[in-house]
Design brief:
Number of strands: 5
CATH superfamily of the largest domain: Zn-dependent exopeptidases
Number of domains: 2
Number of helices: 9
Largest sheet: 5 strands, mixed
Shape: globular
CATH class of the largest domain: Alpha Beta
Radius of gyration: 36 Å
Order of helices and strands: HHHEHEEEHHHEHH
CATH topology of the largest domain: Aminopeptidase
CATH architecture of the largest domain: 3-Layer(aba) Sandwich
């Protein structure tokens, strides 16, 4: 049998391809076996195969990238009117024992829960809470209720105001406007224009940090508005919470200055 010595013959090409395939396979096998020898272990190569065939761990941190730091949650303060008041003063009291403090604490607790669900830290504060001194928050609202005396049909509705002596009347007025707007829309209650000096000169306004926007709200009259105050506290809390969120989110609430009687 005579062999074809032509370098371009099909037979020689097949032979060369077979030899090349055998050489590559041998090199790969030699590399793999080396990983399991003392040499491979000495040079820390035992993880090589796993690194080639397995994706990087999701928990491996890149040392050259900054570690993400969670943003702090903004704080909101809710003062419960007459809670922990000196001399056990519970505020306005009805003949059957219903007190302003009962109503204030119920609404304030529900307001706190709503705002917490929105992602905020919410402090529930007593009337003369030690934390009020220099208190810093994106907003603070003091919750109260009005008289339980039969003062006529005009003694109905809510009031909201800020301190006339505030260092930031622009922020405080916008907070009041937001609460005015959203509380009215949510509850359907009318605004009562009888703003008193006890509201505009509220002691808590003088204690908190000057950059903390603050407002005080009388949620309704215990006598004429008793039904909504005691039977729909969730609705009133939602109105207050919506007002605070309106302020924080810079939503529109263009209204007249509600501090004016």
């Amino acid at each position: 049998m005579i062999m074809d010595m032509n370098t371009n013959s099909p037979t020689r090409v097949k032979i060369m391809r077979s030899l090349l395939t055998i050489s590559v396979t041998a090199a790969i096998l030699a590399t793999i076996f080396t990983l399991f020898t003392p040499l491979g272990i000495t040079y820390g190569l035992t993880g090589g195969v796993g690194e080639i065939f397995s994706p990087p761990s999701a928990f491996e941190a890149d040392p050259f990238l900054p570690t993400p730091t969670p943003s702090p949650r903004p704080t909101i303060g809710i003062v419960v009117g007459h809670w922990g008041y000196p001399d056990d003063d519970v505020g306005a009291t009805c003949p059957d024992g219903l007190t302003e403090l009962n109503v204030n604490l119920d609404i304030a607790t529900r307001t706190q829960a709503i705002l917490q669900q929105e992602g905020f830290n919410v402090d529930l504060l007593r009337e003369y809470d030690e934390r009020l001194e220099g208190y810093k928050a994106v907003a603070l609202v003091s919750i109260h209720a009005d008289s339980c005396l039969p003062l006529g049909n005009e003694a109905s509705g809510f009031k909201v105001a800020y301190a006339l002596a505030t260092a930031r009347p622009d922020k405080a007025n916008r907070l009041v406007s937001c609460i005015y707007s959203r509380y009215s829309e949510t509850t359907g209650m009318p605004f009562h224009a009888g703003i008193t000096p006890d509201m505009t000169s509220y002691h808590g306004f003088e204690e908190i940090h000057s950059e903390t926007a603050a407002a005080i709200i009388e949620t309704g009259f215990l006598f004429n508005d008793r039904q909504i105050l005691t039977q729909q506290p969730d609705l009133l809390a939602l109105g207050i919470a919506n007002g605070v969120l309106c302020y924080i989110r810079n939503e529109d609430a263009s209204l007249p200055d509600t501090n004016q009687p």
